[in-house]
Design a protein that fits this description.
The structure is a single chain. The chain has 106 residues and is mainly α. The protein has a domain of 39 residues. Helices cover 38% and strands 0% of the residues. The chain is built from 3 helices and no strands. The longest helix has 16 residues. 0% of the residues are buried.
């Protein structure tokens, strides 16, 4: 009774398995995809359009100053920098200098 029963002893030939043919994909038009996405309010994966031009200045400034501000304040700050054609750090320096002069601080 120490022998094991061969489960495949009654099979004359082992079964053969075949793979299914791959499904053919039907191409979907880009316009259809865009229409369905718009109907279901799906966001686009495209990068949002830049609102203002990129600022690239080599100023030697290497310190970060992170502050919280309202949208209106940030927009005004960017407008002032654009009007003077200066980097944001330079505008901050000019504003602090003007504040010191107005307060009479030497």
């Amino acid at each position: 009774m120490n022998t094991r029963v061969n489960a495949f002893a009654t099979l004359a030939e082992p079964p053969t398995f075949t793979t299914k043919a791959p499904k053919t994909e039907k191409p979907v038009e880009e316009e259809t995809i865009a229409r369905i996405a718009e109907q279901n309010n799906f966001p686009s994966r495209e990068a949002p359009k830049a609102r203002r031009k990129q600022r690239r200045y080599k100023t030697g400034r290497n310190r970060h100053l992170g502050i919280r501000a309202t949208d209106e304040t940030v927009e005004n700050f960017y407008k002032a920098a654009d009007a003077r054609n200066v980097p944001l750090g330079e505008l901050l320096r000019l504003a602090l200098d003007a504040l010191e002069r107005a307060a009479g601080i030497p």
